[in-house]
Write a structure and sequence with these properties.
The protein is of the alpha/beta class. 54% of the residues lie in helices and 8% in strands. Helix 8 (174-187) packs across helix 9 (197-206) and helix 12 runs antiparallel to helix 13 (259-268). The mean pLDDT is 85. It binds zinc ion.
Length: 359
């Protein structure tokens, strides 16, 4: 049940794969024309679909009928890892490991069109292992395909990269993630009322472009909703609460009102003081970026609650950010209510003094 949604909505073929339109187009052409490069490297941040796509693509080209038919010998034996070998390079770093993994590379596939090797986290290989890989890639048979996957392409030697077809998996945008979550909710027949849509927006924003993270978080919410737990109770379990206090506190400092009342609420609700500072710092950063660059379309994910601060002076928010960073150092030393209250009062005092000088 833990990752139920993630497992349930794992795409089975390229058509069902969410997003990455250009990548899907490229691979559909490969499959249609039946001409593929021998070696691939898929790179990009975690949760962007590299490994899932590599498996789907492998199954598809290995299928001896058409596009992962699920009935041919290749498809039915896919999970038995006979012609399809997937390894985690992080735990098979040594040259001996690589040599063992590829020891049967000279034999033709038993059930499939191709023999496919997937090496996840390939940047973790040792120097000698990479040398061995290089030798393999140079002498590879046309019935073997190698898909290397990495979250850190800079650590992969150029000699390896130059022999691979490189595919970049970009992070999903806020809007794409939101659309994906809404699609899943629709399929699961879950209706969220207007006041509760903030939860989904929150997940989309905080999954930071990883659909896997977004789905795992949605899974948690899903279970709570199915258990008929009040939506306000759910919100209490989420970081969204901290976000709200951070916005509120920043608003109090900028508007110069209700500061003590808000600090009291934070203390009584036992919210981590350091996290509050970090959230305010994140919001201040977003405001500075938007004020400085002013290309909102490029930073759609930043727009949340921005309107609250559209009239704040850029110099003032930069100063406020400075004061905040000083207090993050302080709360690292003593993370308690007194230090938090003193820190906020100090920020407030310095900010007031600074803004008076600005007018
Ligand atoms: Zn098949």
């Amino acid at each position: 049940m833990k990752d139920f949604l993630y497992k349930k909505y794992k795409p089975k073929n390229i058509k069902d794969f969410f997003g990455h339109r250009v990548i899907k187009k490229i691979f559909n052409i490969f499959i249609k024309k039946k001409i593929f490069p021998s070696n691939f490297i898929f790179y990009g941040e975690k949760g962007t679909g590299k490994t899932t796509f590599a498996r789907i693509f492998s199954k598809s080209i290995m299928c001896i009928k058409k596009n992962s038919c699920e009935s041919c010998k290749s498809c039915t034996n896919f999970s038995k890892k006979i012609d399809f070998i997937e390894i985690d390079a992080a735990s098979n770093r040594k040259v001996e490991d690589i040599n063992k993994i590829f020891e049967n590379v000279m034999y033709r596939p038993l059930f499939s069109n191709y023999k496919v090797y997937i090496l996840d986290e390939v940047h973790m290989l040792s120097k000698h292992a990479f040398n061995s890989m290089l030798n393999l890639l140079e002498n590879i048979s046309n019935y073997v395909k190698v898909v290397m996957i990495t979250t850190d392409i800079k650590k992969v030697p150029k000699t390896i990269l130059s022999r691979c077809f490189k595919i970049f998996f970009k992070r999903f945008s806020y809007n794409e993630t939101l659309l994906y979550l809404k699609t899943i909710l629709k399929k699961e027949n879950i209706l969220l009322f207007n006041s509760n849509k903030s939860i989904i927006k929150y997940i989309a924003l905080n999954s930071k472009g990883s659909l896997r993270d977004a789905l795992v978080q949605l899974n948690y919410i899903y279970m709570l909703i199915k258990s008929k737990i009040n939506i306000n109770e759910i919100k209490k379990h989420l970081d969204i609460f901290k976000n709200r206090y951070a916005y509120c506190l920043l608003d109090c400092i900028i508007k110069k009102k209700n500061l003590i009342k808000t600090v009291k609420k934070i203390i009584y609700n036992n919210i981590n003081f350091k996290n509050i500072y970090i959230k305010i710092l994140e919001i201040a950063n977003k405001i500075i970026i938007l004020k400085e660059i002013q290309i909102k379309k490029m930073f759609v994910f930043i727009k949340i609650k921005y309107k609250l601060y559209k009239n704040i002076n850029l110099n003032c928010i930069i100063k406020l950010r400075e004061y905040l960073i000083e207090e993050i150092y302080s709360i690292n030393l003593v993370n308690n209510a007194e230090n938090f209250l003193a820190g906020i009062l100090k920020i407030n005092y310095k900010y007031n003094k600074y803004t008076q000088g600005q007018t």
